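Write out the 3D structure for:
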Amino acid sequence: MPQNRSATSNGGVIALILVGGAVATGVAALFMTVRSYASPAMLGFRTSPAYFLIACLFAGLVVGTAVLPARPRGPLAPIAAGLSAYVAMEVGGRIGVILGLMLSAQAWPSGSFLTAVLKPAFGRYQAYELLALVVAAGLAGLRVLTAKTGGASQPWDAGAPGGPFGAPGGPPMPGRPPFPGRPGQPPSYRPPYPGPGQGPVPGGPQGPPPPHGGA
């Protein structure tokens, strides 16, 4: 009988997504710290949209990969993973900007700067952050599909030697008992019996012996 592997509970899926979101927040903060650091090294690339999109891609991959060990069901995993990746970019990006300024100026930023950084806004870079949402939701959705199609597994069933799995048992070898068939079934091998109109089995009983001196 096929055995269905149980799906991961919603609590387990959410826990994995939260762990992935925390790691993705750190990844985004690292990218934005490097981007905001005052240095002429690779300044054009660090401040380009391509660099920001790479950070979004990595954040989405981290959150989506966190769902892969689970066996989620339904739309919860893709929705939660996408939102977690977007929030990770929002929070991690702001942390990275603040850390980059602190490392560059070697001082705590002013209150006005913190207010400007932490103020919610939606612009071009917030639209770029949707890439993290799409990547994380796509990986989680793909995991839902693979868990749905590969949920059944066949148990191992040994048959007769030399035959396919689950085949009936074969005849015994000399000095050995008959090979078993499926579990719970008797061996399929039976000694031969004579059919209608046939003589006794060779080597079987032949009746009483003739009297002494008889033909």
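The first helix runs from residue 10 to 36.
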